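User: Can you help me understand a structure? I only have the sequence.
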Amino acid sequence: MLKKPKLSFWQILNMNVGFFGIQYSFGLQQSAVTPIYDFLGASPDQIPILHLAGPVTGLLVQPIIGALSDKTWSPKFGRRKPFFLIGAIVCSLALLAFPFSSSLWMAAGLLWILDAGNNTAMEPYRALIADKLDDDQQPLGFQMQSFFTGLGQVLANLSLFIFPLIFIGSTGSLPTWVYASFFLGAFCSIASIIWSISKTEEIPPTPEELEKLKEKRSVFGPLIEIFSAIKDMPRVMWQLALVYLFQWYALFCYWQNSSKSVALSVWNATPDNKEAYSEAVSWTGLVNGWYNVVTFLVAFALVGFAKKYSAKKVHAFCLLIAAIGFLAFPHIQNKNLLFFAITGFGIGWASMMGIPYLMIVADIPKERYGVYMGIINMMIVIPMIIQTLSFGYILKYFLNNDPRMAISFAGVLLIISAILTLFIKSKNNIKNVKIQPTGH
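Assistant: Let's start by predicting it. Here is the structure, written out as tokens:
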């Protein structure tokens, strides 16, 4: 087996710079797309279905692109890098076009394109770490991706706070600050990927691997393997799937409604009042940036607690802290106190990024580690799809189309997920486990 060369800290950093642009774009999706829908006249119960792009493209694009990149090799372009570049180009073009959306459905269509581009670039990025780094250096590689995830999303949210102060007024159907934020996102997406591609050489496959790449493979092979793995899935993963159903449903409720909740509770404003609502959106961007800072600060400390107290107890506690924050969030009228409430979600988000892997890793056979990581991604996006299809009805007929009630509803769902976490039974052998951060 070919021994992988040791890379310097700066080489590992350079190969992961592109993750910054991808996550900057995801940060814009989380915090800016709902306000854009509002500016274009969406009713509250339409918002969930308009966000269907994210989970569906995550469910379909990531496993397909991952399988395709596994079977790709070009002496000139490499294996993973072509997908980074294609994804970044698609993403940048969608970000450039987004502010020019003249209708609600044009914006929704561009979101599908944007998310497909992001997922095309992101999925092979995780594989690149395994391709390039040996076992000793892989933790640093994944930790670097975690760092750029936090940095990208924090700066995206900061742009939503700063640009409305600089770029005042409207251009076309949308406030001018939307153009500035999305144009900067387009630049970051393509520039960061080009930087990584130019600074990183991929390891060529061995002659034996090249022969395997030339072999004719079944188009349905990956699908057959996925269904087989689901049939044989350890019980602990089914238990985690139930936790994830409530957990990720709750998060989508928050991301879709946070800006409007803040606008009502602090500014007593609706999207019809563009000036006050823009101020609320920019402040929500700052608040969401803060929870990503909290996540970065506490993520690795949680691993130590998990070793001491068990992963499921730590995750349940973090979900409970996040739930308390969500329940308090819509009742806060002082905008500065929102940072205290969202700190709870920052702690919960830090746990969601890594601790669930500790609960299941000892139960997963090593030869199927890759396919089960893909199934976990399915367990994340399926609840989001269910949310986009069902929550509009719930919001309209049970929550009075009130975004503040949506945040409270999310808090209740997190309490349920915390309780379900305590029923998980796993081997939980987490010593020497290397944590891999999750993405969107």
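Now, to help you interpret it: The radius of gyration is 21 Å. The mean pLDDT is 82. Let me know which part you'd like to focus on.
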